[in-house]
Amino acid sequence: MTGSVAAGHASTAAVMTTLQAVGVQRAAWLLLAFPLAGAVILLLGGKRTNAWGHLVGVAMPVAAFCYGVLAFIAMLGYPASSRDRDLTMFTWIDVGRFHVNMGLLLDPLSICFVLLITGVGSLIHIFAVGYMAEDPERRRFFGYMNLFLAAMLLLVLADNYLALYAGWEGVGLASYLLIGFWQYKPAAATAAKKAFIANRVGDAGLSLAIMLMFATFGSVSFTGVFGAVGGAGHGTVTAIGLLLLLGACGKSAQLPLQSWLLDAMEGPTPVSALIHAATMVTAGVYLIVRSSPIFNLSSDARLAVTIVGAATLLFGAIIGCAKDDIKKALAGSTMSQIGYMMLAAGLGPAGYAFAIAQLLAHGFFKAGLFLGAGSVKHEMNDEVDMRRFGGLRAIMPITSITFFFGYLAIIGIPPFSGFFTKDSIIDAAFGKGGTSGFILGCVTVLGAAITAFYMSRVMCMTFIGERRWEADAHPHEAPPVMTAPMIVLAAGSIGAGAFLILGDRLADFLAPVAGIGKPTAFHGIWSVAGLVTLALVLIGISIAWAMYGRREVPVTAPAGRFVTVAARKDLYGDAINESVLMRPGQWLTRLSVYFDNRGVDGVVNTLAATMGGTSGRLRRLQTGFVRSYALSMLVGAVLLVGALLLVKI
Amino acid sequence: MVSPAHYVALAVVLFVIGAIGVLVRRNAIVIFMCVELMLNAVNLAFVAFARLHGNLDGQVIAFFVMVVAASEVVVGLAILTSIFRTRKSASVDDANLLKY
To answer: Does residue A619 belong to the interface with chain B, where contact is any CB pair within 8 Å?
Structure first.
């Protein structure tokens, strides 16, 4: 059985002690400087840089990755208890009690993210050189991508919440610019707006959390907040946790702010791979794991995180089952996998390490899947409807094989990545104990089964079976600049999970980070839950193969039953947003406009009209006749004399 | 007997007649004459009060008033003549350009 994993309360250091960065890590600002310089050169350089722009755009992430590896190696040289290194670049805000530095924190958690962002980012940039080769705006694309990398790196490296927020906003901006990259397409422009607005709601939560932190603790730096959080009231800590969760929901497309992710597929595929699969959408999970000292103190906030994760897990999986657009199916999958990560993060110290492991592995296999989808789309004249694919396995062998490995990883077939990471989460969920643990565990197992179904559906519809291509489609294998990154990512999909989970490698690496601690013994990969999951996964694969692999796939989508129709409409997410938020908002606006016109304008206009009317009547006194002026003088004189007489008498 | 009070009463009557004339008459020259009437009424009142108080202050002021009246007539008639030359009309009702 899954061994009693008590809500692992190993000694989680809530107080953060950081040392000054020394040696190689003193140059950690290079991690931000490289991509930022790339963005500046490409965006301000303009059309002059068109010829070599993409080379700069690729060189910068690669340079950042090289430095990241150096910093990582330096970190491994330090003893495990002193790996938190802080580098203060400059003082950002210094007003009264409010003191914020722009500083970087290199600790095991942030270095994992740095390697993921720069590594997978470099591969995707290389892919984009080939993917965007025919696009005249390729230079601008790389400028925005580098801007995104700079902001994302600031987000994960910041040593205080305000600098994190600056990076948070930066990635939101980059996401907007990149989703709407082909801004002449109305669908893309609308999708970009939608993503930004949904993110903004989450950002409001994060900014309120930061304000609450400053009001309660007087500081927004990690060391300050985590040191003081032990003495705060339970309500305050829970409020901060829930507000952070709201911020995370916006950025990671979790319920209730999930509606933007599927529309975000309007952007170019490298954008979908980098931002909406591997990195930006994982920023929410990073925020929660980083704020672990806060969440450790509030079981209510943790419960909310697990509920959000579990609900989104199923939500995304159900949506993914009915989408015919390959990118949207993968987007539903992303939503679901991040639900897994959130669920694990909400389990407290028992799950933080597994959430990060799933995050890293997901970065590999999801990016690989998206690049594969991009390769297919590129070769099929930008067609994304899977009903027009089919039989591509023979034409595009490298793409098929790398996609296949990513597929095996995501559905959790041993010994590929997803198996280890997902089973760890399932095990930790059951290990929570009680009814909540059982329900969460069942949800994760069910999610795994549905994942197997819809991913197998994607595989069957795209790569095997009859060719249902359009008449003008002449696909062939993608060029090496596009297949090489896919191969590297496939290698990651194969090995990352085993590397991170077996031997507790990642758990031990992350344990010293403030608040994370060690998940107590779980070693239950071959537990009952794991075997049940595997069985359900195989059943899911066989159902999908029976429906889509053996039978003919209709070219036009057949009218589905209620669940299919609901899933095609994103489980009415947009409809709910519209009726609950948008229409009342419009009524409110119209009401305000009405009041403004009738009320405010009415008062002002009435006042003006009164003035005008009165003055119009008064001006009739100016008759122009000398005698009437003389009369007024006489009357005035008489009054004066009368007054004087009265006074005298 | 005829006391200074009667003179003051006469002055008041003359003043009122002059004031009404200024307000009612349209011809500018007649208005000037009414103004002269008012000034003379005031002169009469001053002299009567001088007699009443037994000193000559009132009579001295009467002289001043006469000088002022004379100069005022000079200026006023000059203006009136100039207006008459341009407008060919001596009615003050015609000079109403400051009407709203």
So the answer is: yes
pLDDT of residue A15: 64
Predicted local distance difference test score (pLDDT) of residue A125: 94
B75 interface with A at CB cutoff 8 Å: no
Return the residue of B nearest to A631 by Cα: B23
Choosing among B27, B91, B94, B96, which should be mutated to test the A contact, i.e. which has the most A CBs within 10 A?
B96
Integer Rg of chain B from CA:
17
The secondary element (H helix, E strand) that includes residue A535 is: helix A528-544
Residues on chain A touching B38 (C-beta within 8 angstroms) = none
Q: Looking at CA atoms only, how far is residue B24 from chain A in angstroms?
A: 7
How far apart (Å, rounded) are the C-alpha atoms in residues A583 and A596?
A: 20
Q: Which residues of B touch A623 (CB under 8 A)?
A: 96, 99-100
Per the CB < 8 Å rule, is A634 touching B98?
A: no
Interval B31-65: pLDDT, tens: 999 999 999 999 999 999 999 999 999 999 999 99
> What pLDDT band is residue A5 in, cutting at 50, 70 and 90?
very low
Q: Looking at residue A12, what is its pLDDT?
A: 41
- Select from B19, B95, B100 the Cβ nearest to the Cβ of A626: B95
Are the C-beta atoms of residues A118 and A169 closer than 8 Å to each other?
Answer: no
| Domains delineated in chain B | 4-87 (1.10.287.3510)
**CB of B97 less than 8 A from some CB of A:** yes
Work out the pLDDT band at A69, boundaries 50, 70, 90: very high
Task: Supply the angle between the helices A161-179 and A138-157 in degrees, to the nearest 10.
Answer: 160
A623 to chain B, any CB pair closer than 8 A? The answer is: yes
- pLDDT tens for each residue of A445-486: 999 999 999 999 999 888 887 888 877 778 888 888 888 999
CA atoms within 13 A on the CB side of A240: 28
Q: Which chain A residues are Cβ-neighbours of B98 within 8 angstroms?
A: 622, 624
Does residue A9 carry a pLDDT above 50?
no
Residue A102 has φ and ψ, to the nearest 5°, of -90, 95
| DSSP state letters, A102-140 | EEEEE-HHHHHHHHHHHHHHHHHHHHHHHHTTT-TTHHH
Asked whether A272 and A279 are in contact (CB, 8 A), the reply is no
Note the pLDDT tens digit of each residue in A378-425: 888 888 888 888 888 888 889 999 999 999 999 988 888 888 888 888
Check if the interface score ipTM surpasses 0.95: no
Asked if A332 and A262 count as a contact pair (C-beta separation under 8 A), the reply is: yes
Q: How many helices (H) and strands (E) does chain A have?
A: 26, 3
- Dihedral sign for Cα A512, A517, A519, A521, please: positive
Q: Is the peptide bond before A415 cis (omega within 30 degrees of 0)?
A: yes
Which residues are CB-neighbours of A524 under 8 A, at least 6 positions away? A1, A2, A3, A423, A427, A431, A530
Tell whether B83 lies on the interface with A, counting CB pairs under 8 A.
Answer: no
Nearest CA in chain A to B18: A634
Label residue A2 by pLDDT band (50, 70, 90).
very low
Determine the residue type at A91: T
In terms of CA atoms, which chain A residue is nearest residue B22?
A627
Residue A338 tokens read as 């991040």
**Best CA proximity match to A357, nearest among A485, A248, A505, A494:** A505
Residue A57: name the closest of A146, A131, A184, A147 by CA.
A146
Interval A266-287: pLDDT, tens: 899 999 999 888 788 889 999 9
The residue behind tokens 């209709």 is A554
